[in-house]
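Bench notes, afternoon.
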Amino acid sequence: MGLRIAVTGWAGQIVRAMLERVPTGVEVIAIRRPELDLAVPRTVAPALRAARPDVIVNAAAYTAVDQAESEPALAMRVNGEAAGEAARAAAALGIPVIQLSTDYVFDGGLDRPYREDDATGPISAYGASKLAGERAVAAATANHAILRTAWIYAPFGKNFVRTMLRLAETQGEVGVVADQHGSPTSALDIADAIFTVAQNLTGRADDASLRGVFHMSAAGEAVWADVAEAIFAERERLGGEPVRVRRITSAAYPTPARRPVNSRLDCGKLARVHGVGLPEWHSSLRSCVERLIEDQR
């Protein structure tokens, strides 16, 4: 019998990536509004129960980081309360839940990659809401895996890669922040990892080490300006005009929400426990840019 995964959301990058990368023997049921509306947490449990899953993946979220500063209550309801409802539904069904979380639960002040046991300290409303979600999930059921990731992009949705390619169509030079450190992570790679974790959780139900918090981002590190240069280099290789990156500070590009200066995540635990390691960021980024440019032709 195959593995049946219920995933919250529909249009988000990770959900779309999961639907694209479904392995043989796995069924993904993406549940969206109006049946499941994270802004109305009471709709979560009935919709998940109706799907009769073996695993729940809570991938849908309020992800408008800057807008969350003016809508903190909505962000908390979606990312905090609804995550707890999804975990309680999993507990009632006797199945594991996988919660997607973020580097924004940290303040970014460390001078090394963050480990799972490092102190959290969000500096934005979005980060606070995602940390509340982690805590709600952990309180609802021990049968959980919380996967923190960072700097997500995909060939679809709203993300840094697509923004850079759009700007490159009309600008010969783009100013990009060069003092925030992290690992650009493909939603497609995240989807592959989620499927492995889900299979581990269901196949080794008594292994407590598979539960808990794990970091999951691409191998290697960069600043945003490095990522932009890699995008433009691949675009130029495929026939596009050269685009220059002007390296700027975060202070020169103010946003309503503060970003962690250090978003690097130590992913060693995920590799040791689940046997999952995401590819080095350059390779997945090149594949994404190539696909987007092919789609434009």
